[in-house]
Amino acid sequence: MQGDLESLKRDFERFLKSRGGKITKGRFEIIDMIANYGAHFEIEDLVRWISSQNKNVASRSTIYRTVRLLQEFGAIREVIKLNNRTIYEFVVGKQHHEHLICVECGKIIEFNKEEIEQLQEKVCEEYDFTPINHRLEIFGICSDCKEKRRENRGGCSKNPNPLTQKGISSKI
Question: 16-43 pLDDT, tens per residue?
Fold first, then answer.
């Protein structure tokens, strides 16, 4: 990943220069921090985590702007939108994949099925449609929560849903 990260930084610097953007040490430190975060994230959770790791890395607004730029650049992808919340992931070095999202505990399961990719291509061909991007989100109940339901007959109590409850960390 380190080689990918250094290459990403060089490409991101070229991207910023082409747009007349500022090239700062803080932005590149944010890239390192995001790469080390290792989970899907909401920007506000990322801000809190970065601040807890190193208070001098960057301001909240710099982190927000850098995430937006990294998204435009293609290093960060918006993966889930639910109830006015947006979950992102750092995609550098990752194979394209889709997501299963548990609506009870917020668990996110990544998967890749070639059959789904082929079906999407076939549908696009059928409609003479040129795809630019896509994402597949399947919302449901994970096996852990189904088991808890069976045990408790009331739901998964180990984890409040970080996707639907405000103020709860979504480091999922």
Answer: 999 888 888 888 989 999 998 888 999 9
Residues forming beta bridges with residue 108, ordered by sequence position = 101
Domains, the chain, ranges and CATH?
1-94 (1.10.10.10), 97-167 (3.30.1490.190)
Query: Are 19 and 68 spatial neighbours (Cβ–Cβ below 8 Å)?
Result: no
Give every strand in the sheet of 108-111, ordered side by side: 108-111, 98-102, 137-140
| 143-152 contacts, C-beta under 8 A, 24 or more apart | 144/102, 144/105, 144/107, 145/102, 145/104, 145/105, 145/107
Q: What is the pLDDT of residues 63-79, one digit of tens each?
A: 999 999 999 999 999 88
